Structure prediction request, 262 residues.
Amino acid sequence: MSSRIDFLDEALAAHVNAHSAGPDEVQRQLIEATAELGGWSVMQIGTAQGAFMTMLASLLQPRFAVEIGTFTGYSALCVAKALPPGGRLLCCDVSEEWTAIALDHWERAGLADRIELRIAPALDTLRSLPAEPAVDFAFIDADKESYIAYYEELVPRLSGRGVILVDNVLWSGNVANPDQTDSATRSRQPTRTRRGLQRRQPGPDRFGHPIPAAHSHTARAATSPTRTRPIRPPRICAPSMPTSSPTNGCWWRCCRWATVCR
Prediction:
């Protein structure tokens, strides 16, 4: 079963996996089918990351999601199962062999009608999408040297509440090693990456709210640059509660302090 967390302490990784939602039956079957590919199976995301992606998609409720790099379809299953009614996921990949496994398990899970698979270079697929901001959720996990190019195509198409997840950002810790000079590592190193990802967006921070995660296979999340605040769920509180006082900076727009402290 794919439950690995590459460079965390073994005991801590076990703790994370033990306290994360486990895979359902179809996901277990997909993990087993992917394991039969031998060494290639390491490209499948871990179960803890899958649980995180399902949770995030459940919170965001994306109407249109995009995945770049599908492999055997585990991450797509994790996102598709959390889509709202009418939501759809576009998956971009170039391997008919590996995605045949994905198609089979999407069908078994009853999610095939939510997922569109396009076998073509991902940049071609992204450039064929309408230019308007319609992407609510995107996951980049394909050839590492092209991450910046994928990001550049996605950002103009992000909706006002859109989020991009980028896999392998920490590259098993190598991103912080200046002696690692291969192109895959260099594409993640902070100076190169932030210069590349910021070159078309005015302002000090095109990411909005970046979160570099402490997990080789957990993503960097970036909200759409049109937002000034991260997405927050609705909350009910009374003016008498401490959180609704303007002196402590309440940002929940749900009480009489809204015009003062939001």
